[in-house]
User: Fold this.
Amino acid sequence: MDALLKARSAAIVGGQETEFLKTVDPANAKLVARQRQVFANLQKLGVRQVGFQRETEYVAEEKPESGQGAQAFRVRMLIQLTGIDAAARATPLGYTFAERGGQVVLVSDDDLAQEADRGTYREPWDLGPIEVVRRPGLLIVVPSQERANGVRLANEAAAALPAVRAATRRAQSGILVVALADKRSMSPEWQTGGHPAGAVATPNLAPSKADETILEVVGSRVVINPTERKTAGRLLLAHEFTHVVMAPLGNAAPTWMVEGLAEYVERRLAEQEGDDRPAKKRAELRRTVIPELTVLPIDGTFHGDYGDESYGVSWLIIEHLATTHGLPKVIALYTDQAKGPDTPAHRDQLLQKHLSQTEPQLLTALKK
Assistant:
């Protein structure tokens, strides 16, 4: 079986469809067709490296319904897209293998469908024919019949990137943007304040070098909600791209800083393009919400106390800090906060270090 997995990897990287399909049960026409489509999609995406590893901590499961001696294995796929991913990322698979005509072949490719940690989410190459549109540092994936929308999104993404890089002074090697119609392209768990997000920057995970059973963040990609794929534009993408480039720093920064910076980049871009909505929202928040603020919208209160207004409040906090101290100091504070731990004492220590103030002092200054 390990030899079969290596053969699949080599066939994908080498662009050899015939060799790839030799690893699949030829009697299962639906599986062959599905795997042929997966291969075609991966070729369109451009694969620098790919590997398949059995997850040895999981015990193989007998699958008599797939034939005598058939066994299901949990497999980790490690894939790096050319020009996009700085490192290979992991995604789980459930493969069932059985012997056919004296040869071990793949007889089922979705035996993780009921696993709780897999959920309903599927990778873009698993969801039927796709089209890809490229721009420098960007790879947009859309349904095969929606190339025009792919071009539109690519142009919007290209317009968003400079604003993100100017604010953060950071750039990822490339960003994958998934904008498919299939609802399985976005996990229902990816929510904002209890409702589905318009888009989400989801982390790319890979096994830690110290312990392969532990996954660590090696990058991020953006998945657009299927219902938003034809209307999503540069402002939404600027928000998500900010999350993408900051994610490798760590995940311990307080929510007001994480979302506030993304909101700041998004709304700053909007104002630069002549949009008057940020000015109106700023005035409304300063009139109705900021005077009543008693605590910064950290994780425990971000949605509970202020609901959707937490994003606006966080934006104004970052805007205040950028205006008062300069954006480089804000990014330096974020960088330290992201390393953790996310505790009140540590947050105050870092605020003192970078800005010479505590959270209560920041709150007071914000209200002036």
